[in-house]
């Protein structure tokens, strides 16, 4: 599977959610980027997320990070501390 990604870079994933995902064997951006609707449903039911994955666009974020597109990730998902997130 390769080296684990820093899942906390995804907006909506903090230390607790990262631990939960690791417990389910989810450790890379590529895994999240490849999730199907069925995967999302299963993960959300297991972790009681109730729509968070879609609402926070985890798959979209993971696709950009898995592809190494840091510039587009920063443009689409500005984090606190960047000028475009007001």
List the helices and strands and how they pair.
Layout: H1 15-23, H2 29-33, H3 37-47, H4 52-55, H5 58-66, H6 70-76
Structure description:
This protein has about 90 residues and is an all-alpha fold. It has six helices and no strands. The chain is globular, with a radius of gyration of 13 Å. The chain starts with 14 loop residues before the first helix and ends in a 10-residue tail after the last helix.
Summed up:
The protein has 86 residues and is an all-alpha fold. The protein contains 6 helices and no strands.
Strand content: under 5%
Alpha-carbon Rg, integer: 13 Å
How far is it from the N-terminal to the C-terminal residue, by CA?
37 Å
- The SSE order reads HHHHHH
- Shape field: globular
What composes the largest sheet? none
Q: How many H/I helical runs?
A: 6
| Oligomeric organization of the protein chains | single chain
Q: Round the mean pLDDT to the nearest integer and report it.
A: 91
Q: What is the count of β-strands?
A: 0
Spans of at least 5 consecutive residues with low confidence: none
The helix content is 40-55%
Structural class: mainly alpha
């Amino acid at each position: 599977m390769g080296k684990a990604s820093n899942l906390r870079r995804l907006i909506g994933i903090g230390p607790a959610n990262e631990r939960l995902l690791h417990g389910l064997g989810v450790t890379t951006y590529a895994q999240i980027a490849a999730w199907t609707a069925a995967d999302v449903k299963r993960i959300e039911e297991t972790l009681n997320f109730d729509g968070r994955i879609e609402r926070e666009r985890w798959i979209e974020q993971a696709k950009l990070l898995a592809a190494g597109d840091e510039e587009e990730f920063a443009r689409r998902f500005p984090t606190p501390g960047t000028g475009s997130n007001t």
